[in-house]
């Protein structure tokens, strides 16, 4: 909002210099009046008069927040326009390099991506990846039994009964936002062979479990471990020839059939 400012002299008095809009307290003796559209007059300091009793009570600051002066917007703007800019915190000094750091010219880089990682606020503003429970994949170990049995080599982990404990665990995971799982089966030793044929049995433990989970939780994302080691009597991920060599092409053939069986 525009306003017309006037006084008996041709310009604002030089005593306006030094006015701090945040801390200045106008008094009766040092005021000269200026017209304002919002009130009859506003006041600026005069250089010649002593400072008698303040017109407004001076309130001492009790915190780091500057005390309000009670000046109007027009008074603050008039002070700034006259060159009396309120004091602000100083510019922090440039951090010093360790002693012995060589003085070299800046590299001719058009971009320095590190600047977007300088502070927590910048990292939050520019991060491209935000991790949430929906990003997690929960590994679950299953077996043919009905009870959950502890895994000796993995304290705190259990092999879950595929029709009971597994369903409960998936339900709890979904309650906290984890909607992706990966299955690791324990296959009965009697079904293990050197060629891992049980891996592509469509009625095997993993295909049965997938069908059940999809029936109970249609929106669940299920990952599987396409590998022969749970089904191999040798305990290896591939078919092992009698001289100990892994038969890669033949293993891939078995893995393709396993992937098809788990996809239905």
UniProtKB/TrEMBL annotation:
GO biological process, one term: chlorophyll biosynthetic process
Signal peptide as annotated in the record: none
Low complexity composition bias: residue spans: 97-110
GO-annotated cellular components: cytosol
Pathway involvement of the protein, from the record: Porphyrin-containing compound metabolism; protoporphyrin-IX biosynthesis; coproporphyrinogen-III from 5-aminolevulinate: step 1/4
Protein purpose: Catalyzes an early step in the biosynthesis of tetrapyrroles. Binds two molecules of 5-aminolevulinate per subunit, each at a distinct site, and catalyzes their condensation to form porphobilinogen.
UniProt name for this protein: porphobilinogen synthase
């Amino acid at each position: 909002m525009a306003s017309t400012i006037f006084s008996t002299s041709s310009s604002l008095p030089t005593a306006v210099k030094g006015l701090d809009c945040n801390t200045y307290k106008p008094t009766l003796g040092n005021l000269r009046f200026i017209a304002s559209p919002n009130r009859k007059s506003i006041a600026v300091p005069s250089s010649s008069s002593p400072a008698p009793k303040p017109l407004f009570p001076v309130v001492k600051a009790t915190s780091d927040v500057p005390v309000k002066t009670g000046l109007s917007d027009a008074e603050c703007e008039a002070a700034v326009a006259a060159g009396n800019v309120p004091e602000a915190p100083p510019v922090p000094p440039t951090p010093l390099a360790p002693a012995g750091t060589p003085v070299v010219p800046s590299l001719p880089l058009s971009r320095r991506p590190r600047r977007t990682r300088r502070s927590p606020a910048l990292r939050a503003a520019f991060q491209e990846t935000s991790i949430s429970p929906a990003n997690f994949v929960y590994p679950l170990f299953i077996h043919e039994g009905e009870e959950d049995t502890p895994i000796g080599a993995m304290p705190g982990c259990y092999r879950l009964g595929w029709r009971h404990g597994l369903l409960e665990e998936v339900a709890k995971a979904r309650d906290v936002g984890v909607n992706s799982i990966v299955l690791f089966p324990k296959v009965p030793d009697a079904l293990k062979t050197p060629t891992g044929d049980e891996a592509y049995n469509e009625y095997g433990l993993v295909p049965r479990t997938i069908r059940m989970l999809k029936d109970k939780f249609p929106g669940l994302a299920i990952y599987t471990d396409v590998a022969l080691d749970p089904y191999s009597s040798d305990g290896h991920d591939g078919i092992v020839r009698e001289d100990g060599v892994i038969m890669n092409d033949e293993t891939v053939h078995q893995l393709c059939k396993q992937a098809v069986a788990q996809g239905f």
